[in-house]
Amino acid sequence: MLSAALPSTLSGRLARWGLTIVAVYALVALLTPLLLHLGVLPDPNAGLDNPIYAAPSAAHWCGTDRLGRDVCTRTLAGSGVALQVVAIALVLALVIGVPLGMVSGYLGGGVDRLLVLLMDTLYTLPVLLLSVVLAFLLGRGLPNAAAALCVVYVPQYFRVVRNQTAQVKAELFVEAARSLGAGPLWILRRYLLRNVITSVPVLLTLNAADAVLVLGGLGFLGLGLPETIPEWGGDLQQALTAVPTGIWWTALFPGLAMFVLVLGLSFLGEGLESWLAGHPQRSS
After folding, report:
1. Which of 37, 27, 157 minimizes the C-alpha distance to 91?
2. Residue 1 belongs to a domain
3. Is residue 283 in a domain?
């Protein structure tokens, strides 16, 4: 188990806390649809029968928003939405960025220069700005938000994997395999992949923390998901005019949920980086 293998240092403790936080969010994301189906939690979009801007109480633990919707339910349901969008986006970015980085770093030449130019162009743009432009072009919706985030993070995987591939391909064991007649695909799969993939888990975790914030930013700007889908950034945007009048709960709970998840992912990424640094990957 990862938690058992983590060192008992500060970074190891932070990683355990991060792993616990992420596991709790994942559990909430899995249980919330079931609880909604069983009627234990109220519909996150049903507010006609509830008072608007009701303060936290026994009936509504986190209060209600401007439409009378239960803030607690929307915050819990937002966990699943955030994890789903971020997971889809980063898995797609991983699937696209890692192979492109390996091919570019191994082949070099014109292919490498073209891919580097394209990825560097995307990489130089601020993450939020690029995601806003893409979300505006694609429109609102869960698949479109995931696609916008995917494009944003592909260059990061490409750059890391390409640089490591360029270094590893000069190693003696790669030269030996090439001299024995091994083809490029065999070398990439058998020798290079296992040596360049070690930094990806750390990057994946840190990107996940960043992606949660970017998704929240898109929702806050009205470019993320439709209002009918519970999403923390969108709920914060709707609470913007209510907070100055003393209706604090509409912003506190979704904002706190986003903050804790980002904190947990950051802790986990820091711990993974420390753990992998103490367990170097064998080169053959």
Report:
1. 157
2. no
3. no
Q: What is the pLDDT of residue 269?
A: 86
> pLDDT (tens digit, 9 = 90+) per residue, 111-123?
899 999 999 999 9
Nearest-5° angle of CA 74, CA 263, CA 281?
125
- For residue 245, the 8-state DSSP code is G
Residue 210 placed within a domain = yes
Q: How far from 282 is each of 4, 178, 230, CA to CA, in Å?
A: 22, 19, 45
What tens digit of pLDDT does each residue of 24-76 get? 999 999 999 999 988 888 888 887 678 899 999 988 899 999 989 999 999 99
User: Which CATH number do you get for residue 22?
Assistant: 1.10.3720.10
Looking at the structure of the chain, the number of domains it has is: 1
Mean pLDDT of all residues in 93-120: 91
177 located within any domain: yes
Instruction: Name the residue range of residue 164's domain.
Output: 7-277
Judge contact between 72 and 62, C-beta under 8 A.
yes
pTM: 0.87
